Amino acid sequence: MYKLEREGLDSNIIMEILSSYSKGEPSPASGRMFTHSYETGDLILRSLARNVFDLFMDKTMLDFTIYPSILLLEREVVGIVASLMGGDENTTGSFTYGGTESIILAVKAARDKFRSSNPGVIPEIIIPYTGHPAFIKASRYLGLKPVLAKVNFDTMKVDIDNVSELITKNTAIIVGSAPNYPYGSIDDIKGLSELALDYNIWLHVDACLGGFTLPFLRDLGEEIPEFTFKLEGVSSISVDLHKYGYAPKGSSIILYRDRSLRRYQIFTYAGWPGYPLVNTTILSTRSAGPLAASWAILKYLGYNGYMNMTRKILKAKRDIIRGLNNLGLKIIGKPEASIVAFTAEDTNISVVSLELKKRGWSVQLQPGSKQLGFPPSIHLTISPVHEGLTTEFLEGLRDSIEASKQYRVRSDIEIIAKQIESRELSIYDILNIIGAEAVITLSDELLLLINELIRIIPPDIVDEIISDAVNILV
Prior knowledge:
By secondary structure, the chain is α/β, with parallel strands linked by helices. Among the domains are: 52-297, Aspartate Aminotransferase, domain 2 (3-Layer(aba) Sandwich), CATH 3.40.640; 413-473, no CATH class. Helix content is 43%, strand content 13%. It has 16 helices and 15 strands. The strands form four sheets. The protein has a seven-stranded mixed β-sheet with strand order 1-9-8-7-6-2-3, sandwiched between helices. Strands 12-13-15-14 form a four-stranded antiparallel β-sheet, with helices on one face. Strands 4-5 form a two-stranded antiparallel sheet. The protein is globular, with a radius of gyration of 23 Å.
């Protein structure tokens, strides 16, 4: 059990402890991460972000009457992002602490608008199978019924005809991705917009990944389908600044076509002895550091800076796709943005991901789902810093594929999966089998077992087991 030290520690000792805790972890600045990192390689940008963050770190965004500079910064940041998303003078929005918060707010606004004319009805939200889990999270938090729409397995874009079939009088919101996270494909937002107009339904576009790449890719000559407020049926858009806006983690924007829609987002309460509480977002007290750093980076890079960053991404992406094809790997979907995912029928992709890790590369393994029909794959989030590292990465990938051929899947994997599905094993039995006494010390062999079980077992059972395991171990 942890306890507060009676005497505080020396600051040097504290830094030594933290360094020991993080020893061996991948560095976002290394350029060897293709997941959870959006690295420019620009040292001035990194230093500027930290300095500005520190300058505004202790200022709260709770009350803009105390710090009016925060309101000025938010208005400008929201306005810049709105202009990139085809907005006009009516477009409005808020700075949030991440894409999930932006998505929850959009779903909340859509739900409340629906409720205003449909009291007592459980609202439904239509989400592509490739849509971000944040929409499922929002539906569970806010009491909506999630309805999952099929995707075209060639393009990994949502099936518009299926969305049309799923729309009912209870549909409050439909969702499209620009692009989706797993494969980097952009849903047919134009088709979804037409459905939204036909049925008078809220359409949210998740551009958390693409908001700061797709406009610039289009200007570089790439064929990027329309996904912004230029489509009349789009009601709201989420854009993350902490991804390809290159701001510190905890920086996102939720945009609305006009203030009448944003009104459903705002929370106020005056029925207590204290001051009237006004929240434009979910959190109350929050540091203005991420907002100020976002503003500074937007100013530092400007249009030409973002074009240059995107140009580097595009070159790295083309080099990687060419290399994947030369290695005989299958690219999944239609990677139109900065994401590339690949698989192989005769190669254990899970093993390849671990072999890459041994060679110093961090990639995102996607276990896939046998029940849903999605293959296991490796997801690459491509950043500007990768422009000069593609040859080295592809050589490491080639060697990892070769090394993976020596591995054999456990012979009892199907037996374990059936025991789990039939509920023969308790969560403690499962943890004992996989050897997960401590969640941070899993061996490569156990990680491979876990990923294979995730692929085989139905997703609803996987959800239950992971929730129980995390509750016990974390």
